[in-house]
Specification:
Helices cover about 40% and strands about 20% of the residues. It is built from 8 helices and 7 strands, in the order αβαβαβαββααβαβα. Strands 3-2-4-1-5-6-7 form a 7-stranded parallel sheet, sandwiched between helices. α2 crosses α8. Bound molecules: guanosine-5'-diphosphate and magnesium ion.
Length: about 220
């Protein structure tokens, strides 16, 4: 029987991606630019939270947004309406952003003019968790209508994130959602994770989220 050669493509892709992500993080540190990678399911509230965050941050930090989408520019348009520059990455089918794609977007930006870059990753709780983008912090949004069982189904996402924003708390009154059970599941996977309860619709909880992010950016700049 002839020899069979097995090439573990996935491992090589991850190794190359991690190397580039590390280089991106180093460049960001040198220039004191904080990059946030925001992940969630489609419709979880990524664009809504970005818009709320920009309103709370833009007077304090010079900000730009990287929008990842399979095939549209509607989210970039919403960000541009806030007066914030946006770079749209259209992945043409890919279900996540990786370091190569983010690096392409970063080439369109001048780090000297920026304090904060927010990435809206592709809507998906699986693949984005596997690819380091070079961000300084990873945050996921879980919206109440998605259910409190998501940490059981998508554990990696909860493991790689520094914070989770539980969005759409205005649905709690009508949803079958056990916040205490959710927190217990999340903290079991990741005891250090911060948990914020917000509604991008009513604005509830947004100030606490903004305060945390501002503190993270300030601490990063001091340590850079
Ligand atoms: N009721 C309610 N709706 C929300 C909230 N946040 C976002 N939405 C709505 O949910 C839908 C998806 O939000 P979007 O920000 O586009 O999600 P994305 O796909 O993750 O970027 C939109 O119709 C939003 O108006 C919230 O806190 N409460
Ligand atoms: Mg969006």
């Amino acid at each position: 029987m002839a020899d069979i050669r097995l090439i573990e493509i996935k491992e090589e892709i991850f190794a190359d991606n991690d190397k580039l992500a590390g280089e991106i993080r180093e460049r960001l540190r040198e220039k004191e630019v904080f990059m946030l990678n925001l992940m969630a399911s489609p419709g979880g509230g990524k664009t809504s939270l970005i818009v709320q965050t920009l309103r709370g941050m833009k007077d304090h930090f010079r900000t730009a947004v990287i929008e990842g989408d399979i095939d549209s520019i509607v989210d970039a348009e919403k960000v541009a309406e806030e007066g914030i520059p946006a770079v749209q990455l259209r992945t043409g089918g890919a279900c996540h952003l990786d370091a190569v794609m983010v690096n392409m977007a970063l080439q369109e930006m001048n780090f000297d003019d920026l304090d904060l870059i927010i990435i809206e990753n592709i809507g998906n709780l699986v693949c984005p968790a596997e690819f380091d983008t070079g961000a300084v912090r990873n945050v996921m949004i879980l919206s109440v209508p998605e259910g409190d069982d998501k940490p059981l189904k998508y554990p990696l996402m909860f493991t790689v994130c520094d914070a989770i924003v539980v969005n759409k708390v205005d649905y709690l009154a009508i949803a079958d959602f056990d916040m205490a059970a959710l927190k217990q599941r999340v903290l079991k996977l990741n005891p250090k994770i911060k948990i914020f309860e917000v509604s991008c619709k009513t604005g509830e909880g947004i100030p606490a989220w903004i305060k945390w992010l501002r503190n993270e950016i300030t601490a990063f700049k001091k340590s850079a």
